[in-house]
Amino acid sequence: MELLYEGKGKRLFATNNPDEVIAFFKDDLTAFNAQKKSSEEGKGKLNCAITTLLFELLQSHGIATHFVRKHSENEIVCKRVQIIPIEVVVRNVATGSLTKRLGVREGTILNELVEFYYKNDSLGDPLINDEHALLLGCVPHTNLLEQLRKEARAVNAILTPFFAKRNLRLIDFKLEFGLDSGNALLLADEITPDSCRFWDATSNEKLDKDRFREDLGNVKMAYEEVLSRILS
Questions:
Q1: What is the pLDDT of residue 230?
Q2: DSSP state for residue 82 in the 8-state scheme
Q3: Which of 8, 92, 122, 202 could form a disulfide with 30 if both were Cys (CB 3.0 to 4.6 A apart)?
Q4: Which residues pair with 185 in a beta bridge?
Q5: Phi, psi values for residue 209, rounded to 5°
Q6: Which residues pair with 20 in a beta bridge?
Q7: H or E element, residue 148
Q8: Radius of gyration of the chain (CA)
Q9: How far, in Å, CA of 109 to CA of 161, rounded?
Protein backbone atom coordinates (compact mmCIF):
# COMPACT_ATOMS: atom_id res chain seq x y z
CA MET A 1 0.00 0.00 0.00
CA GLU A 2 1.11 3.54 -0.70
CA LEU A 3 2.20 5.38 2.45
CA LEU A 4 0.43 8.74 2.53
CA TYR A 5 1.58 10.07 5.90
CA GLU A 6 3.44 9.00 9.01
CA GLY A 7 2.89 10.67 12.36
CA LYS A 8 4.06 9.97 15.89
CA GLY A 9 1.54 7.20 16.53
CA LYS A 10 0.17 6.10 13.16
CA ARG A 11 0.84 5.54 9.47
CA LEU A 12 -1.81 6.31 6.85
CA PHE A 13 -2.03 4.22 3.68
CA ALA A 14 -4.01 4.64 0.48
CA THR A 15 -6.63 2.06 -0.51
CA ASN A 16 -8.36 1.17 -3.77
CA ASN A 17 -11.15 3.51 -2.69
CA PRO A 18 -10.03 7.14 -3.15
CA ASP A 19 -12.37 8.21 -0.32
CA GLU A 20 -10.87 5.84 2.25
CA VAL A 21 -7.50 5.30 3.94
CA ILE A 22 -6.09 2.71 6.33
CA ALA A 23 -4.63 3.92 9.63
CA PHE A 24 -1.96 1.66 11.14
CA PHE A 25 -1.35 2.11 14.88
CA LYS A 26 2.35 1.98 15.78
CA ASP A 27 3.97 0.72 18.97
CA ASP A 28 5.98 3.95 19.25
CA LEU A 29 5.78 6.10 22.37
CA THR A 30 6.61 9.80 22.17
CA ALA A 31 6.33 12.72 24.56
CA PHE A 32 7.27 16.39 24.76
CA ASN A 33 6.82 16.89 21.00
CA ALA A 34 8.79 13.69 20.27
CA GLN A 35 11.82 14.80 22.29
CA LYS A 36 11.35 11.65 24.38
CA LYS A 37 10.92 8.42 22.43
CA SER A 38 10.49 4.73 23.09
CA SER A 39 8.24 1.85 22.07
CA GLU A 40 6.01 -0.68 23.79
CA GLU A 41 5.24 -3.93 21.98
CA GLY A 42 1.50 -4.38 21.62
CA LYS A 43 0.62 -0.74 22.30
CA GLY A 44 -0.57 -0.25 18.72
CA LYS A 45 -3.03 -3.14 18.97
CA LEU A 46 -4.39 -1.77 22.25
CA ASN A 47 -4.85 1.73 20.82
CA CYS A 48 -6.50 0.33 17.71
CA ALA A 49 -8.98 -1.63 19.83
CA ILE A 50 -9.69 1.33 22.13
CA THR A 51 -10.20 3.75 19.23
CA THR A 52 -12.51 1.29 17.48
CA LEU A 53 -14.74 0.89 20.54
CA LEU A 54 -14.85 4.61 21.37
CA PHE A 55 -15.55 5.75 17.81
CA GLU A 56 -18.33 3.17 17.55
CA LEU A 57 -19.72 4.49 20.85
CA LEU A 58 -19.63 8.09 19.65
CA GLN A 59 -21.21 7.20 16.31
CA SER A 60 -24.04 5.43 18.14
CA HIS A 61 -24.70 8.77 19.89
CA GLY A 62 -24.80 10.75 16.65
CA ILE A 63 -21.21 12.04 16.44
CA ALA A 64 -20.00 12.08 12.81
CA THR A 65 -16.54 10.49 12.58
CA HIS A 66 -14.09 9.28 9.96
CA PHE A 67 -14.21 5.72 11.33
CA VAL A 68 -15.49 3.07 8.89
CA ARG A 69 -14.47 -0.29 10.34
CA LYS A 70 -11.66 -2.20 12.00
CA HIS A 71 -9.39 -3.79 9.38
CA SER A 72 -6.90 -5.78 11.47
CA GLU A 73 -5.47 -5.85 15.00
CA ASN A 74 -3.44 -2.72 14.23
CA GLU A 75 -5.52 -1.09 11.47
CA ILE A 76 -8.78 0.75 10.93
CA VAL A 77 -10.37 1.91 7.69
CA CYS A 78 -11.23 5.62 7.73
CA LYS A 79 -12.85 8.14 5.46
CA ARG A 80 -10.25 10.34 3.81
CA VAL A 81 -10.40 13.84 5.26
CA GLN A 82 -8.46 17.08 5.08
CA ILE A 83 -7.29 17.54 8.64
CA ILE A 84 -7.92 20.95 10.18
CA PRO A 85 -4.55 21.98 11.67
CA ILE A 86 -5.99 22.59 15.13
CA GLU A 87 -5.75 20.29 18.12
CA VAL A 88 -8.89 20.74 20.21
CA VAL A 89 -8.19 20.04 23.89
CA VAL A 90 -11.00 19.59 26.41
CA ARG A 91 -9.96 19.88 30.07
CA ASN A 92 -12.17 18.66 32.92
CA VAL A 93 -9.46 18.67 35.61
CA ALA A 94 -6.35 20.85 35.78
CA THR A 95 -3.05 19.07 35.16
CA GLY A 96 -0.13 19.04 32.73
CA SER A 97 0.71 22.18 30.77
CA LEU A 98 -2.29 24.11 32.12
CA THR A 99 -1.01 23.97 35.69
CA LYS A 100 2.47 25.02 34.59
CA ARG A 101 1.23 27.80 32.31
CA LEU A 102 -1.34 29.37 34.64
CA GLY A 103 -0.28 28.19 38.08
CA VAL A 104 -3.60 26.44 38.66
CA ARG A 105 -3.37 23.75 41.33
CA GLU A 106 -3.29 20.23 39.89
CA GLY A 107 -6.61 18.48 40.42
CA THR A 108 -8.69 21.65 40.28
CA ILE A 109 -12.10 20.85 38.74
CA LEU A 110 -12.68 22.84 35.56
CA ASN A 111 -15.89 23.77 33.78
CA GLU A 112 -15.17 21.91 30.54
CA LEU A 113 -12.38 24.22 29.39
CA VAL A 114 -11.80 24.04 25.60
CA GLU A 115 -8.47 25.15 24.12
CA PHE A 116 -7.07 25.31 20.58
CA TYR A 117 -3.48 24.43 19.71
CA TYR A 118 -1.87 25.03 16.31
CA LYS A 119 -0.94 21.63 14.89
CA ASN A 120 2.67 22.40 13.95
CA ASP A 121 5.51 20.26 15.32
CA SER A 122 8.24 22.72 14.37
CA LEU A 123 6.56 25.39 16.54
CA GLY A 124 5.77 23.01 19.38
CA ASP A 125 1.99 23.03 18.80
CA PRO A 126 1.41 26.44 20.43
CA LEU A 127 -1.79 27.52 22.18
CA ILE A 128 -3.81 29.82 19.90
CA ASN A 129 -7.00 31.87 20.07
CA ASP A 130 -9.68 32.44 17.42
CA GLU A 131 -7.88 35.39 15.85
CA HIS A 132 -4.67 33.37 15.59
CA ALA A 133 -6.56 30.52 13.90
CA LEU A 134 -7.87 32.93 11.25
CA LEU A 135 -4.48 34.60 10.82
CA LEU A 136 -2.79 31.24 10.26
CA GLY A 137 -5.46 30.10 7.81
CA CYS A 138 -6.44 27.10 9.94
CA VAL A 139 -10.11 27.82 9.26
CA PRO A 140 -11.89 30.09 6.77
CA HIS A 141 -14.27 31.63 9.34
CA THR A 142 -15.05 31.67 13.06
CA ASN A 143 -18.23 29.64 12.56
CA LEU A 144 -16.06 26.56 12.04
CA LEU A 145 -14.27 27.23 15.32
CA GLU A 146 -17.62 27.31 17.08
CA GLN A 147 -18.46 23.99 15.43
CA LEU A 148 -15.22 22.52 16.78
CA ARG A 149 -16.06 23.68 20.30
CA LYS A 150 -19.62 22.34 20.04
CA GLU A 151 -18.49 18.93 18.77
CA ALA A 152 -15.72 18.68 21.38
CA ARG A 153 -18.19 19.39 24.18
CA ALA A 154 -20.62 16.84 22.72
CA VAL A 155 -17.87 14.21 22.76
CA ASN A 156 -17.07 15.11 26.36
CA ALA A 157 -20.73 14.80 27.35
CA ILE A 158 -20.73 11.22 26.05
CA LEU A 159 -17.33 10.02 27.22
CA THR A 160 -17.22 11.50 30.73
CA PRO A 161 -20.22 9.54 32.11
CA PHE A 162 -19.21 6.47 30.07
CA PHE A 163 -15.85 6.33 31.82
CA ALA A 164 -17.26 7.37 35.19
CA LYS A 165 -19.40 4.20 35.17
CA ARG A 166 -16.13 2.29 34.73
CA ASN A 167 -14.42 4.01 37.67
CA LEU A 168 -12.27 6.19 35.41
CA ARG A 169 -11.98 9.98 35.47
CA LEU A 170 -11.60 11.57 32.05
CA ILE A 171 -9.18 14.33 33.02
CA ASP A 172 -8.57 15.85 29.59
CA PHE A 173 -8.25 14.79 25.96
CA LYS A 174 -7.17 15.96 22.53
CA LEU A 175 -9.35 15.74 19.42
CA GLU A 176 -8.65 16.36 15.75
CA PHE A 177 -11.22 17.04 13.08
CA GLY A 178 -11.23 16.97 9.29
CA LEU A 179 -13.41 17.84 6.31
CA ASP A 180 -14.45 15.10 3.90
CA SER A 181 -14.89 15.46 0.14
CA GLY A 182 -18.36 16.93 0.72
CA ASN A 183 -16.96 19.47 3.22
CA ALA A 184 -18.67 17.75 6.16
CA LEU A 185 -16.93 18.08 9.53
CA LEU A 186 -15.84 14.71 10.94
CA LEU A 187 -14.11 13.71 14.14
CA ALA A 188 -10.82 12.14 13.03
CA ASP A 189 -7.50 10.79 14.32
CA GLU A 190 -7.88 8.62 17.47
CA ILE A 191 -9.15 8.50 21.05
CA THR A 192 -6.68 6.50 23.14
CA PRO A 193 -4.56 6.75 26.31
CA ASP A 194 -2.05 8.49 24.01
CA SER A 195 -4.48 11.38 23.48
CA CYS A 196 -6.46 11.28 26.77
CA ARG A 197 -5.65 11.42 30.45
CA PHE A 198 -7.42 8.78 32.54
CA TRP A 199 -7.18 8.57 36.33
CA ASP A 200 -8.59 5.76 38.42
CA ALA A 201 -11.59 7.29 40.17
CA THR A 202 -10.69 5.68 43.51
CA SER A 203 -6.92 6.03 43.71
CA ASN A 204 -6.23 8.74 41.07
CA GLU A 205 -3.62 6.39 39.58
CA LYS A 206 -2.67 7.56 36.10
CA LEU A 207 -3.65 5.13 33.33
CA ASP A 208 -2.41 6.91 30.21
CA LYS A 209 0.70 8.19 28.44
CA ASP A 210 1.69 10.19 31.52
CA ARG A 211 3.12 6.90 32.77
CA PHE A 212 5.68 7.26 29.97
CA ARG A 213 6.07 11.04 30.31
CA GLU A 214 6.74 10.78 34.04
CA ASP A 215 8.69 7.48 34.00
CA LEU A 216 6.06 5.73 36.12
CA GLY A 217 6.44 2.42 34.29
CA ASN A 218 3.82 -0.21 33.41
CA VAL A 219 2.65 1.73 30.35
CA LYS A 220 1.22 -1.27 28.53
CA MET A 221 -0.51 -2.54 31.68
CA ALA A 222 -2.24 0.84 32.04
CA TYR A 223 -3.49 0.74 28.44
CA GLU A 224 -4.68 -2.84 28.96
CA GLU A 225 -6.58 -1.72 32.06
CA VAL A 226 -8.32 1.06 30.12
CA LEU A 227 -9.36 -1.39 27.39
CA SER A 228 -10.57 -3.89 30.00
CA ARG A 229 -12.80 -1.27 31.63
CA ILE A 230 -14.20 -0.12 28.29
CA LEU A 231 -15.20 -3.73 27.60
CA SER A 232 -16.71 -4.21 31.05
A1: 98
A2: E
A3: 8
A4: 179
A5: -65, -15
A6: 79
A7: helix 142-164
A8: 17
A9: 15
